[in-house]
Amino acid sequence: MKTIAIIDNSWDEHHPIYLKIFTQTLLDLAYQVIALCLKPHEVCESIILKYSSQNHLLYTFEIPKHN
């Protein structure tokens, strides 16, 4: 199993949407995904609802906001 980390320290405009889309796509391809972002709970909520069978492949962590 391959692991891919997605990191985004911005959470405005298109950033949350793209991070969720990339995460969903990678889970569809059976990758293990580590998402580091400002609001990891939002990523988990949207993914778990759609991909309950693959949520064991998703790990999320909060990172501090970059000024």
In brief, what are we looking at here?
With 67 residues, the protein is of the alpha/beta class.
Layout of helices and strands, plus pairs?
Layout: E1 3-8, H1 15-28, E2 32-37, H2 40-50, E3 58-62
Q: What topology, given as strand order, has the largest sheet? A: 1-2-3
Order of helices and strands: EHEHE
**Number of strand segments:** 3
Enumerate the spans where pLDDT stays under 50 for 5 or more consecutive residues: none
Class of secondary structure makeup: alpha/beta
Overall 3D form? globular
Biggest sheet character = 3 strands, parallel
Relative strand content: 25-35%
* Gap from first CA to last CA: 35 Å
The number of helical elements comes to 2
What value does the average pLDDT take? 88
Helix content: 25-40%
Specify Rg, calculated over alpha carbons: 11 Å
Question: What would you say this structure looks like, in words?
Answer:
Helices cover 37% and strands 25% of the residues. The protein has 67 residues and is α/β, with parallel strands linked by helices. It has a three-stranded parallel β-sheet, covered by helices on one side. The chain is globular, with a radius of gyration of 11 Å. The mean pLDDT is 88.
List the main descriptive attributes of the protein structure presented here.
single chain, 67 residues, alpha/beta, three-stranded parallel beta sheet, 25% strand, globular
